[in-house]
Design brief:
Elements (H helix, E strand, L loop, with lengths): L3 H6 L3 H6 L5 H38 L17 H20 L8 H10 L7 H15 L7 H18 L4 H19 L3 H11 L8 H22 L9 H4 L9 H32 L8 H20 L9 H9 L4 H20 L7 H22 L7 H17 L2 H12 L5 H14 L22 H8 L3 H4 L9 E2 L4 H8 L6 E5 L5 E6 H4 L31 H11 L3 E6 L5 E7 H16 L3
Parallel strand pairs: 1-2
Antiparallel strand pairs: 2-3, 4-5
Helix pairs in contact: 3-4, 3-6, 3-7, 3-8, 3-10, 4-6, 4-13, 5-7, 6-7, 7-8, 8-9, 8-10, 9-10, 9-18, 12-15, 12-16, 12-17, 12-19, 13-15, 14-16, 14-17, 15-16, 16-17, 17-18, 17-19, 18-19
Length: 608
């Protein structure tokens, strides 16, 4: 029985068949459609978050529009604990009952789906991830929009590919297109959104090359759709006087940016350890039902918000952290409050998302980075005024540099921060801090589902073996093959047993009086009859040999040989020549293929 999604996609299947796999037209058309859909979903999700935040916590607790904490603890302060707890409870019930993959920060689920699940993301995630994230963030959760919108967008792309019955490879690319569309839209970052998903799949500085062009198209279309619907041009609007201070005109400032990179590394290690420490604790807490874990996280979040309030005031740890970013860039947060807020934001995000709540870690990470940059910037202004350092510049560089290292996305982080803020004057220090943090943090990452590189991805299993073997022919390894032990077709079983007892081979080509190939047998074929003493002088080779022989020629690639061996479940194959392919030259075994492959890999690594 076809699903509703499949029935809705039925009219478009002829289009999918018309636009053949890999064609430019296909990617332009489908990536554009995914982009438009992603932009519309992004606009709806953004509106949903605004409404949930306002009616869920801000209005009941009396918080201002950009406030992420409470300046005065009045008789409504208890709501800062009660509402996140109730929000966590509702989120936990929905996740446990309908969609376990909707929990957590979302991006890891997309990465996992790409590498290990053939790009499959259930369609229900589109609705449930948006709903659970709106509840989590709307009730004050310290989480951002990146993970949710990435997962919602990936659900769109994956569902579209499944409905159109495209290949696993296409589904994976559609998955990334949908994620890039959502991120490019919500963060008003068309290029950053396009780069983020192909880059975040791997811990090394590698990209998913096949997805780059489709992701760029989908992200641009999503950005255009989102900005048209919402009227927003940037995720963070900076005043002109702040933008004027975003400069880098003294090379001596690089020493200060080096300090920032080291600070980002230290705090980044603490962030990932604390986050996954909390995540592991809740994962092992069998006594706490799955549905209740986000509620416990919400309770702890509320307690953290109350504890930090006397120091930070309205600049607290609730919501995604955009207020903290803006205030850090403007230099309006005192040094003591910055230090306290860095620690509190790490803990609050770990409680919110690590407990199983639904929300992203991108925005909190940017907020932490912005505060780290503000700490270094304020220190530089105080102790080294001659260098002309501005807190705004360091806060902006901290945003990109911190996230680049913890997420292993140096290129996307730099581009996204520039696009989100409109500050393009700091590319040099941004790249400097991002690369240094990346190099110093190779052993940890905020995204556990990442794999080291393309060669390590299950999505590419076999790609590199095939590429290597396709370039090696049988002729190239012929000298290493074993001379065949030929058996005449009229030889008796007794003669065969005498011959094979001294042989090292497991497969034996059978020939006629002219030495031409007529069959083959293996030691396995002998097992059922070799104990029949009476039959040893009666049974001849023709009685038990296999007449349809799988063979290889000198010009065949080793890839073809491997596929033939695998398809017929054999471990050796005769190399033949002649028009009829009946003159046996040698016997190639799997060990010969393994040696050729290993030798070629060593040559490639050595730059041969």
């Amino acid at each position: 029985m076809p699903s509703g999604l499949e029935r809705a996609a039925a009219p478009f299947r002829p289009l999918a068949q018309l636009l053949q796999l890999g064609s430019v037209s296909k990617w332009v058309v489908f990536a554009s459609l995914i982009g438009v859909a992603g932009g519309l979903v992004g606009a709806a999700f953004h509106w949903l978050l605004d409404q949930a935040s306002h009616w869920g916590l801000r209005a009941p607790a009396g918080l201002a529009a950009m406030s992420e904490g409470v300046a005065v603890l009045d008789d409504r302060a208890w709501l800062l604990v009660a509402i996140p707890t109730l929000g966590g409870l509702l989120t936990g019930v929905l996740i446990a009952r309908f969609s376990p993959e909707s929990g957590g920060h979302g991006t890891d689920s997309v990465i996992e789906a790409y590498h290990r699940l053939r790009g499959v993301m259930r369609a229900r995630v589109i609705f449930l991830k948006a709903l659970t994230s709106a509840i989590t963030i709307g009730s004050g959760g310290s989480a951002g929009q990146e993970g949710p919108i990435a997962q919602v967008g990936s659900g769109l792309g994956s569902s579209a590919a499944s409905a159109l019955r495209l290949s696993d490879r296409d589904r994976r690319i559609f998955l990334l297109c949908g994620s890039s569309a959502g991120i490019g839209a919500v963060f008003c970052s068309p290029l950053g959104g396009a780069l983020f998903m192909p880059e975040v799949l791997y811990r090394k500085s590698e990209f998913e090359g096949d997805a780059m062009v489709p992701c760029i198209i989908s992200s641009i279309m999503a950005y255009a759709t989102f900005t048209t619907v919402t009227g927003r041009q940037r995720a963070i609007e900076l005043p002109d006087e702040v933008l004027s201070r975003l400069t880098f005109d003294d090379p001596r400032q690089l020493a200060l940016y080096l300090v920032l990179a080291v600070l980002c590394t230290i705090v980044g290690l603490a962030y990932t350890r604390i986050f996954y420490g909390v995540h592991g604790f809740f994962g092992r807490a069998r006594s706490i039902p799955l549905a209740l874990r986000p509620a416990v996280g919400g309770l702890l979040l509320g307690a953290t918000a109350l504890a930090i309030s006397p120091i930070a005031g309205e600049r607290g740890v609730l919501f995604g952290g955009y207020g903290l970013m803006l205030d850090s860039i403007q230099g309006s947060i005192p040094m003591l409050a910055l230090c306290a807020l860095v620690a509190a934001k790490i803990v609050a995000t770990s409680f919110t998302v690590g407990s199983g709540g639904s929300g992203g870690v991108f925005a909190p990470s940017l907020a932490i980075g912005a505060m780290l940059g503000a700490i270094v910037g304020q220190g530089a202004e105080h102790f080294f005024p001659a260098l002309g350092a501005h807190t705004a510049a360091f806060a902006l560089v901290g945003m990109g540099g911190f996230f680049a290292g913890v997420a292993k996305v140096p290129v996307a982080a730099v581009v996204m921060v520039c696009e989100m803020t409109g500050g393009y004057e700091l590319l040099a220090p941004l790249m400097f801090v991002s690369v240094l943090h990346l190099l110093l943090s190779q052993r940890w990452s905020l995204y556990e589902a990442q794999v080291p590189g393309v060669v390590d991805s299950p999505a590419h299993a076999g790609d590199f073996v095939v590429d290597v073997l396709e370039r090696i022919s049988v002729r190239d390894v012929f000298a290493e093959t074993r001379a065949p032990q030929l058996i005449h077709q009229d030889a008796t079983l007794r003669q065969v047993l005498h011959t094979v007892s001294d042989a090292k081979e497991s497969y034996f080509p059978v020939v006629d009086d002219d030495g031409l190939l007529v069959g083959i047998f293996s030691l396995t074929d002998l097992r059922r009859i070799y104990l029949e003493d009476v039959a040893q002088d009666v049974v001849i080779v023709r009685d038990f040999m296999i007449e349809r022989v799988v063979t290889a020629r000198m010009d065949d690639s080793l890839d073809e040989v491997v596929r033939n061996m695998t398809a017929h479940n054999i471990n050796a194959i005769p190399i033949v020549e002649g028009e009829e392919g009946t003159r046996v030259l040698a016997l190639m075994e799997r060990n010969d293929l393994s040696r050729a492959y290993s030798r070629r890999l060593q040559e490639l690594r050595a730059g041969a």
